[in-house]
Design goal:
heterodimer, A: elongated, B: about 325 residues, Alpha-Beta Plaits, binds adenosine-5'-diphosphate, binds magnesium ion
């Protein structure tokens, strides 16, 4: 019992590292650097320039923080989806689903490195914001901010797991991913004040990951205490768990259906 | 207890055709087959492309659900007790896909070792041992994307052996390999047999089945048409002789006329560039040659030879043609 738990934990970590290398197609050093430096900087500059032009100079921090936290979705959406869906391209699904491996450890393990990667991405985004765009962090509690970033990246990656399971079922996953990423740019409130949106759109916003994380990060950086964002973060965490569970159910359903229809190898 | 037992297994595929007018076609890939494999036996399933070999293997290794019938591995049902079956078997499906191309050979094995819950202490010594067994000990650190087809196929075999299963399923292990690569793979299979593994091997090469297997099930259109030892399979052609006639540009009506002749048991045509080789099975031996030449009258005829039947001819007899 304890032994099998240990083996599952090992599967989780080994799978985390190896699947990251094996399946994350961006994993060439230049592409990786671009995703960590050029992508956040260009989003940030674009929206900061546009946003401050529209709403005034003092709103710069709004966009800097929003787009930094949004970087969690780079790893969480694109990376995680590829780590799940990539097996289709390598043709490894028949072999994977013939192993006795614990499916939950297998499935969730593949997101683990992307969570770390996402955290790094958010911090780098904030770093560019501080050094190049003058973001003021003098009132920020770094520990609380770290917790916010951890939970937000976790929940976004959970959402990525759901999309990853979906990517096993559809061949248009890049289209789905791009759409989701850009919809998140709007719905997460990274670049606009959510209260300006119609009510039905706000409902969508608050059922997605990231929204509460961005709101919390803005509060913490402007000097709020942990207690003010605790409920937001609790919900963000639960949303993450919910998406992971939904993704896992879909993953199991895919395995079940594919074995019946004989479609495990369909590209 | 038998290592593998298959009872009245059937599998029908219902692929959806077309995007707009969706039509469902039925393909009976495996049609009511039954057989068993004893522990330690090397059992062959021989059949042309599309005969249902891969489908059978997929069902036995728990990645495809049969339409009806059942199969057991060491007594465990492959559908209801798949969890018990999986640690006991290893398998490869022919071809080069199914490995993580961006990982090294050794890292592929490491990942699958953890998927099979192999103890870290054991996999540490087992992975180098397996890499040596399949002759990849010098290339283990290289990425799989740089491997030749034969190397990938051998890595697949190593992967299948990670958890030291009793039973191995090798679906066309030498497919697409050059003669040397194929020979290396056959060498590995022989070594495994010496280790007392139960092996079910599929192939569409008669000589491969003959060289390796103790018993062979010949399968065609999803049905087993013969099941016996290689020697006994040769019996079906034992009273026949094979007349090989080389012709140039034979019209199909002439072939039909030959086929209609009572003294011809079986006729197969092999196309070799512009010429055709007729493989005629007959009990009359060389006496039949004049009658055959009479029918071929007017055609350009090349070499003619009469020979004893081989296992290849038994196969031709059983599956009708070369199966192509
Ligand atoms: N996933 C699938 N969907 C539909 N038809 C299939 C599928 N897999 C195999 N078939 C069909 O089933 C038959 C048997 O195929 P297969 O088992 O692959 O034969 P073999 O391995 O002997 O070449 C063939 O007609 C093939 O086209
Ligand atoms: Mg096949």
């Amino acid at each position: 019992m304890f032994h099998s738990l240990l083996l599952n934990i090992r599967l989780f970590f080994r799978g985390a590292v190896l699947s990251y290398i094996a399946l994350f197609r961006w994993f060439t050093p230049p592409a990786y650097l671009a995703s960590k430096v050029i992508a956040p900087l260009s989003y940030m500059l674009f929206f900061v320039v546009l946003g401050t032009f529209a709403t005034g100079k003092e709103s710069a921090s709004f966009y800097i923080i929003g787009n930094s936290v949004q970087m969690a979705a780079m790893s969480g959406i694109y990376g995680v989806t590829m780590s799940i869906g990539g097996d289709r391209w390598d043709g490894t699904l028949p072999y994977l689903f013939a192993t006795p491996a614990n499916r939950l450890a297998l499935f969730v393990g593949r997101a683990a490195i992307h969570v770390l990667d996402g955290i790094l991405g958010v911090f780098l985004g904030l770093f560019w914001g501080i050094t190049l765009l003058g973001l003021d962090v003098s009132k920020t509690d770094p520990l609380v901010l770290s917790v916010v970033i951890l939970i937000t990246t976790f929940s976004t990656s959970g959402f990525g797991l759901l999309l990853g399971a979906l990517s096993l079922l559809t061949r248009n996953i890049m289209f789905v991913n791009n759409t989701v990423f850009f919809l998140l740019l709007i719905f997460s409130g990274a670049n606009l004040n959510l209260s300006l949106l119609p009510e039905w759109m706000q409902t969508i916003s608050w059922s997605l990951p990231l929204t509460r994380g961005i709101a919390s990060a803005r509060k913490i950086i402007s000097g709020s205490a942990f207690i003010e964002i605790a409920p937001l973060m609790g919900t963000e965490f639960l949303i993450g768990v919910l998406y992971i569970l939904l993704g896992f159910l879909l993953f199991r359903w895919f395995e079940f259906k594919a074995k019946r229809k004989g479609t495990l190898e369909v590209m | 207890m038998n290592a593998i037992e298959v009872d009245n297994l059937r599998r029908i595929y219902r692929p959806v055709m077309g995007i707009f007018r969706r039509k469902v076609k039925e393909i009976v890939a495996v049609d009511d087959i039954s057989f068993y494999v004893k522990p330690g036996e090397l059992f062959g399933i021989l059949g042309p492309n599309g005969a249902g070999k891969t489908t059978t293997v997929k069902i036995l290794v728990t990645i495809l659900i049969p339409t009806s019938g059942s199969a057991r591995i060491q007594g465990f049902d492959v559908v209801r007790e798949a969890e018990k079956v999986r640690p006991r078997i290893g398998f490869i499906l022919g071809g080069e896909r199914g490995l993580y191309w961006r990982l090294s050979g050794v890292d592929n094995l490491r990942y699958f070792a953890s998927l099979y819950h192999v103890d870290p202490g054991i996999s540490k010594s087992r992975i180098p041992y397996l890499m040596e067994l399949v002759g990849l000990e010098d290339r283990g650190k290289e990425k799989v994307e740089g491997y030749s087809r034969g190397m990938k196929q051998r890595l697949h075999i190593a992967r299948a052996l990670l958890h030291d299963p009793d039973i191995l399923f090798l679906d066309e292990p030498s497919i697409g390999l050059d003669p040397i690569g194929a020979r290396e793979v056959r060498e590995v299979v022989r070594n495994l047999q010496a280790e007392k593994k139960t092996i079910l091997l599929t192939t569409h090469y008669m000589f491969e089945a003959d060289a390796l297997c103790q018993r062979i099930a010949v399968i065609n259109h999803g049905k087993i048409v013969a099941l016996d030892t290689p020697e006994a399979l040769k019996e079906v052609v034992k009273d026949l002789h094979i007349i090989e006639v080389e012709v140039f540009g034979i019209p199909s009506e002439v072939i039909e006329r030959l086929q209609a002749k009572g003294f011809i048991e079986n006729l197969a045509v092999e196309n070799v560039e512009q010429r055709q080789v007729l493989l005629i099975q007959t009990a009359r031996g060389s006496e039949a040659v004049p009658d055959i030449l009479a029918i071929l009258n007017g055609l350009r005829v090349g070499k003619i030879s009469v020979r004893e039947p081989t296992l290849e001819d038994a196969y031709v007899r059983l599956v009708g043609n070369k199966g192509e």
